[in-house]
Structure formats: C-alpha cells, structure tokens
Amino acid sequence: MIQGKDNLQETESQDTHVLASSIEDERLETLKVQIAEGEELFQQCEEAIQQAIGQINQGFYVLGKALGLIQENRFYRKEFQIFETYCEAKWGIKRARAYQLIAAANVYDNLLNNSSDEGMSTAVDTLLPENEYQIRPLVKLPPSEQVTVWRRVLDSLNEGEKITQQAVLQALRENEDLKRKVLESLKGDPQVREAVSAATRAEREQRRADRRAQVQEAAELPDAKYRVFYADPPWKYRDSGVINDNDGYGRAERHYPTMSLEAICELGEKIRDRAMPDSALFLWVTSPILPDAFQVVESWGFQYKASIVWDKVRHNPGNYTSVRHEFLLICVRGSCTPDVKDQTDSVVTIERSKVHSQKPEYFRELIETMYPYGRRLELFARQEVEGWDRWGNQ
Predict the structure, then answer these.
(1) How do beta strands 323-333 and 275-285 pair?
(2) 217: left (phi over 0), alpha (psi -120 to 50) or beta
(3) Rounded CA gap, 76 and 87, in Å?
(4) What are the pLDDT digits (tens) for 24-82?
C-alpha cells in the first residue's frame, strides 16, 4: 500500500526523533563515564569550596580555583545543566561573584608564577593579594601588565604598611599614565608610528589568513540531520570605511573574513537539507543589521519566534547610541518548543570579553538546557565543544 504524503512525513518525524533520542542517550552515557573518571577531582573541589565558603574574602583563591576546575571540566552537569545554576543552588554564589572569583584565581596564579622574577623576590606570602578586592582592578589587564602593576604596588609600600585596593588602583593609574606618556612621545616620530602600524596590519592579515585556511578546511557541512542549530555569522557591515589601527577592537573585517548577506543566505539550501522537520535555530545578530537576520532566517527555512538580549555591560560607540547589547534570535522549523518547562530570562547580563565577537559559554549551556535532546550543529564555530558538531570558523 502506498502511504500518503502526510503519513510519510509523520513516519519521517518519528524516525528522526527516535534517532535523535538514541544519539543523545549515547552522549549522556559518555558524559557519565567522563564525570565518573573525574569524580575524585570533583569531590576534592567541592570539599575545598565547603571549607572556604565561610571565609570568602580570605579563601577567594581556593574558591575561584575550585569553581574554575568544576566549570572547565563540566563536573556541575552531574546535577545541573548550567554552571551558574550550580553555583547559586549548591553554594549560594551568584553568577557575577562566581566569575569574579575564577578571574581572581587566574590573576593570583599569574602573580605566583612570576613571584621569583627580578623585582618580586621577597617572601611569597608578603607579595600576593590577600583578598579578591585587591585583585579585581588587575583582572582586565594582560598578564604581563598584571605583574607590572603589582610590582608598582609593592614598590609604593612603606615598611609594615598593608596592601589596600586603593593602593592597587593608584598603581594602575600610574601605569596607565606612563603608557600614555610613552605613546605620546612616539607619536611625533613618523618612523616609529609607521613601524607600529605596519606590525599591526601584518598581525591582522595573518589572523585573517589563518581563519580563511580554517574555513576552507571545513568547506562542507556535516552530512547529518540536526535538531538544533547555533550560528554567529561573520556579518559584513555596510559602513566598512577606514579602520583605525590604534583601535584594539574595531570592526569585524580586521579580525576575520566577513560574508555578505547573499553569501550567508546561500547556505540555506544545505542547512534545510540537514534540518530535522522539527528543529530550532539560535542566531546572533546586532542592532544595525537586524533586518538582514530575518532574511537569513527565512532563507534557512525557519520562522522567528522570540529573542534573548545579551547585555554586554561594556559599551561600543555607535552612530545613534552607545551600544552594549546583541540579540540571540530563537527560530523554529515545524513544531519545536523547548523540551523543558522552566523559562529563561529574556535579558542576560554578562560583561563581554576583549576578543572580538566572542560569545559567553553561558548561552550554549542555555541552549543545551532548553533542548537537551537531539543532535546539535554550531555554524561558524570558534572551537570544538563536546556534544556539538561544528562547521566553519568565525
């Protein structure tokens, strides 16, 4: 008997759901094995947190180091899908505070590793920060500058004087003043200015060449069916104009090869072929090109349903406003509401990194929580991530 079109589609949908469930079961089993192998380390981390939690100022390094290991190894997934939920439910530590502690532990490690260098030769226990507040002003600095500023703090102390956050802030200001004076002194020398600009251009071109090579290596999309797609396209902006060589962030073109709207839309045929009848797309876009994103959504065979706003805290200058947010569009094909009933907040505040266009790992974990079942594909991926297939390189 020949089945009707509706019956064929229903059978295909049932088969793909069974396949997705089977794949997810295998991944969950693999994850359980990995967690079991790291159970001892996980237990050590939680014991360390338990001991340090009552003295969060003095025990900041232990807390930050333990939380960092738990996040890095995803030990929290034994009970929780999202790291931030684990921190708050298990230890009563809010998301922002958890990341402060992890960042402080990384700075502390950097200072500790450089404590034997010239200029930091006194006893280690008198060199290093005593609490997270002393470290906080150093977090956003490059590792080498963290050491430079900390040395300046130590040099400013009188005998018997204690280190304070104000002393660290003063050393930071002095370091910034010195950098400005050096830059100003170099501005008048055309040869130095041209050498700096040439080196900056060469470094930028090398980064772009490396990324082009990575894109070419991953020219073909994986031949599989996916229930979840996650994409951060390398959008090409219309006001590409002159790029300031002194701007460390700047437009996308200076960081990676961009794609025209037409080129991104042309991926639609391949994506539609790989999308399950009921599937979801999470698509990043910024305000200036928001209309372009809706063209991409339609070209890829999805319909827009909702959005999440990422409040990046740090501002970027814009033509009309000082911009500090991006949109994560939630789109579906067929019927694909989240597998869980708990609803997430539509506004998420996480300070952006200094790496251009890099998105917080929180959003990937949020997608995994909303859609724990089915195969997932990240388009324009920056890195390999367990539980995800990847294509391209942003």
Answers:
(1) antiparallel
(2) alpha
(3) 9
(4) 556 556 655 655 667 888 888 999 898 888 765 668 999 999 999 998 888 888 888 78
Q: In angstroms, how far is the first alpha carbon of the chain from the final one?
A: 49
pLDDT digits (tens, 9 = 90+) for 52-68: 887 656 689 999 999 99
- CA within 13 Å, CB half, 190: 0
pTM of the model: 0.57
The DSSP 8-state label assigned to residue 240 in this structure reads: -
**What span, in angstroms and rounded, lies between the C-alpha atoms of 197 and 202?**
9
Residue type at 283 in one-letter notation: L
Q: Any idea what the Cα angle at residue 348 is, between residues 345 and 351, rounded to 5°?
A: 170
Question: Where are the alpha helices (H) located in 53-113, listed in sequence order?
Answer: 60-73, 83-91, 95-113
The pair of three-digit structure tokens given for residue 347, joined into one six-digit string: 């506004």
Q: Give the pLDDT mean for 306-313.
A: 93
How high is the mean pLDDT of the chain? 79
Most confident range (mean pLDDT) of 111-125, 222-236, 237-251 is 222-236
- Give the containing element (helix H, strand E) for 314: strand 303-316
Say if residues 83 and 76 touch (Cβ distance below 8 Å): yes
